[in-house]
Design a protein that fits this description.
The protein is α/β, with parallel strands linked by helices and about 290 residues long. Helix content is about 35%, strand content about 25%. It has helices at about 45-50, 80-85, 105-115, 120-130, 150-160, 180-195, 205-210, 230-235, 235-240, 245-250, 275-285, and strands at about 5-10, 20-30, 35-40, 60-65, 70, 85-90, 165-170, 200-205, 215-220, 225-230, 255-260, 260-270. Strands 6-7-8-3-9-10 form a 6-stranded mixed β-sheet, sandwiched between helices. Strands 2-1-4-5 form a 4-stranded antiparallel β-sheet, covered by helices on one side. The structure holds adenosine-5'-triphosphate. Keywords: ATP-binding, Cell membrane, Membrane, Nucleotide-binding, Translocase, Transport. Forms a stable energy-coupling factor (ECF) transporter complex composed of 2 membrane-embedded substrate-binding proteins (S component), 2 ATP-binding proteins (A component) and 2 transmembrane proteins (T component).
């Protein structure tokens, strides 16, 4: 399912003395099957964009298109439930939303809330549990008897059990240790690859964006200031530095030249020191040796 934002503005508390223009003239295209990362400092508008992707927020100006639904400012946007069902959002610290007595009840809550039968929801719960790397013995346990990492996986399974076409991840690894972070990110990448699940990752980590995404959008003060493939974005690390982005972490990024008729860039991981000015220049010009 394709999603796009076209010239979207969003104002919190519109028409009050507290009105705040959070995003301005944001246009982003997310064709079906894309892995898109949205990066930016705190307050740059990432979460506001994210909430437009499944119509939790309705634009103040502009149009959001989700599959065949157009959601616009100044019109009645009726019955958005089917849209919300197709775009699953994993919010920050999703385990805080666990509340049922057992893992199984927590996972089936979402699908049943959207009208899926109990039998089907239970079937999906088992599939989702496997997808997040947990086994069925856990189904009868209380979510509160699990480790933090397991709780997060259960919460993610609850979103996957909705069988979404698109999954939106808001800092999904916040608070996890490096190993846990990698496991979760690799898991989402596998889902993206195997199920061709469109994935939208909101992150502060340039490294994760470089490693996993096909497309990167950089936001600053409510606006999209740069977008492109990781190769395009990281070919000019100076621009990122000027934006105050954490380049040493960011550009532990790798570029390898691969000969296949024409030469293609492939992501590998190098340190910034290795990304010499000469290579950066070649990449900028699309020239290879
Ligand atoms: N409910 C709200 N009411 C008023 N202003 C808000 C509200 N939510 C966010 N804002 C403001 O909108 C702007 C964009 O916020 P947003 O949460 O989208 O940024 P963000 O990039 O997701 O930040 P973070 O990385 O901290 O999550 C900020 O200036 C923020 O203060």
């Amino acid at each position: 399912m394709d999603i796009s934002l076209s010239h979207v503005d969003y104002r919190y508390q519109a028409n009050t003395p507290f009105e705040r223009l959070a995003i301005q003239d944001v246009s982003i295209e997310i064709p079906s099957g894309t892995y898109l990362a949205i990066i930016g400092h705190t307050g740059s508008g990432k979460s506001t964009v994210l909430q437009h992707l499944n119509a939790l927020l309705i634009p103040s100006e502009g149009t959001v298109t989700i599959g065949d639904r157009e959601i616009k400012a100044h019109q009645k946007n009726k019955d958005l439930r089917p849209v919300r069902q197709r775009v699953g959002i994993v919010f920050q610290f999703p385990e805080h939303q666990l509340f049922e007595e057992t893992v199984e009840k927590d996972i089936i809550f979402g699908p049943m809330n959207f009208g899926v039968s109990e039998a089907e929801a239970k079937k999906r719960a088992r599939i989702a549990l496997k997808q997040v790397g947990l086994t069925e013995e856990i189904l009868d346990k209380s979510p509160f008897d699990l480790s933090g990492g397991q709780m997060r996986r259960v919460a993610i399974a609850g979103v996957l059990a909705m069988d979404p076409d698109v999954i939106v991840l808001d800092e999904p690894t916040a608070g996890l240790d490096p190993r846990g972070r990698k496991e979760i990110m690799d898991m989402f990448y596998a889902l993206h690859n195997e199920r061709k699940l469109s994935t939208i990752l909101v992150t502060h980590s340039m490294e994760d964006a470089a490693r996993y995404a096909d497309q990167i959008v950089i936001m600053q003060q409510g606006k999209v200031v740069k977008k492109g493939s990781p190769e395009e974005i990281f070919s000019a690390p100076q621009d990122l530095m000027q934006m105050g982005l954490d380049v040493p972490e960011v550009v532990r990024f790798q570029l390898k030249l691969e000969e296949k008729g024409n030469i293609k860039l492939e992501k590998i991981f190098l340190s910034i020191e290795q990304l010499s000015a000469a290579v950066a220049e070649q990449l900028r010009r699309g020239v290879t040796s």
